[in-house]
Amino acid sequence: MRMARSLSAVVIVPLALMMLPDRAGAADCGRARDLQAQAREMTPKQRLDLLESAAAQCEDDPSILIDLAEAEVVVGNPNLAMRRFQQVAETAQDVCQRARALAGLGRVYRLQGEKTDAVQYLRSSLKLCPDPAVEADLLELQWTARGAIVGADEIRGALQPRSAGVEPGIDLQVNFESNSFRLSPQGRTQVDEVARVIESPELRDARIRLIGHTDQRGSDDYNLRLSEQRAQSVRSYLIEVHGAAGNRLVAEGRGKREPLYRENNERAWAMNRRVEIAVGGR
After folding, report:
1. How large is the C-alpha radius of gyration of the chain?
2. Residue 48 has pLDDT above 50, yes or no
3. DSSP conformation class of 230
4. Which of 18, 53, 84, 147: CA 20 to 30 A from 221?
5. How far is CA 70 from CA 23, 27, 57, 88, 127, in A?
6. What pLDDT, on a 0 to 100 scale, did the predictor assign at position 166?
7. How many CA atoms within 13 Å lie on the side-chain side of 237?
8. Could you tell me the pTM of the whole model?
9. What domains, with CATH codes, occur in the chain?
């Protein structure tokens, strides 16, 4: 009997000890979040120091890692910030935290003058979780280039695979005649650039989706029909003028259901009227 009681004690003690790290970890994360809250009122250098301490105590908390990455951008450590943003984008369970990390990557690319990458990451962030600040950043980037033909090199770059959470694709302001699905001269020139890309060796066999979008004005039925017709016009032009294989071009219409910008003003409406080019999918 004495031996049985001794064995029980030997088993119970390690089990109790095994439970202690979980409680300690929870306490560490609690202290880390206190540091995170204090950091918001500090100077950039003090904020960075506090957030580094917080991340050391609770290393897998995505909110702390994002705050730390943003602080690193402010003090001039963009490469380290990008690694932290990437970590959160690939591992966070919460979709809005992943979106915030993607937006952080987009802003770093913008600071580095990499417009195509900046647009891709900001765009992917908005699709995951709408955010007015991200909308404003993306709208400013795209508005400055309005009216210009997007060249084949930029389109090709936007269609290249990127990291997790970033869907290859590009939004083009393809012009049509007013309240019509007929391509304007500028619209045809823009689609000519698309043709150069989708017939290139790296994409010649890929499935290409042409997705029409309208602005938020007008009825759902009217906008859905117009977006479908405009996407179909782009598809027909690619087939008839450039000889693209119709079995790999899919025309879709989304109407006004998926605006990139939710504001009700001329700038947002103009940028929401677009044809999205995407690779793969259904």
Report:
1. 25
2. yes
3. H
4. 147
5. 29, 25, 18, 12, 21
6. 84
7. 24
8. 0.81
9. 24-141 (1.25.40.10), 147-279 (3.30.1330.60)
